[in-house]
Known about the structure:
By secondary structure, the protein is α/β, with parallel strands linked by helices. The protein has a single domain (3-29, 54-282), classed as 3-Layer(aba) Sandwich (Collagenase (Catalytic Domain)), CATH 3.40.390. Helices cover 25% and strands 21% of the residues. It is built from eight helices and ten strands. Strand 3 (46-47) and strand 4 (50-54) form a beta hairpin. Helix 1 packs across helix 7. The radius of gyration is 18 Å and the shape is globular. Residues 10-42 have low confidence and may be disordered.
Amino acid sequence: MKKKLFILFGVVLIFSGLFFLFGSRVLGVFFPKKEYVLTRSESSVHRFRDSSTRLDAIRVKVFYAVPRNRTGDIPNDWKTPIEEALRRAVSFHSLQFRGKSSLAFDVYPKPVILDEESHFYNTDITARGNPHALISVAEELDRRVFQPDGDLYDAGFSAFKKGEYPVFGIIYEGVGASGGIIQDSPKQSAGEVARELKLPEFLIFKVHVPSANGFFILSRDFLTDAEYHVNSATLLYHEFSHTMAIPDGYDLDTGASYTADIMGDGRRKPLLRTYLSRDILSGMGLVE
Length: 288
């Protein structure tokens, strides 16, 4: 049986990290053996350095996910700041990709009260963008919302159109800022995946999210706290970018930026004052 490979590209904060994870669902897409070889396509926008995965149309199913012990923290107007950030992200995406890749968001109409309390999702470690919450919350959402026997199943909401690149976006009542792609791997163990990618085995995890090929998590605080008012939408798009396989543009240990665009120093700026670099766009098939 092929295994599911999840690559988590990083987070907004200086506690960022690079994680490689795999899980158990079977699809027809394999981890590209030339992942780090630049490929270009005149005909379509594709995932970064992966011309086999087209991004002509991206649809993100967005959820405001709240652990059951955090329901008292739900703002009265929780939806407005989320939708405003998403609208700005759509405009930014259209501008950067010159209309050759469409981005659409569907926001689940009410907060999803999660089955467990915060500690279950966060575990004892929330650094590096809280990837444990990203995985566990996404798995629960997939089970409850996207599977016919789920208690929140909605056939209309859970559907993706043919040809759309499916993504989960999780606005989380808690710590979170990370994202990545999900792909199949023919490998049978974490050790095999680690050796193929030349990474430590402790960076390999299992995930089971059958309904998405990418997902990200962002704390609700980033969209509502005054401290992040200037760059709230920027942070959201930064994390979303990881679902297209775009890596961070800053040092994962120190937080020091080595690119000026939204993946590096630009993540601190308003969305209208940042951009995706030419190298990234070229690596996604957008050539001049």
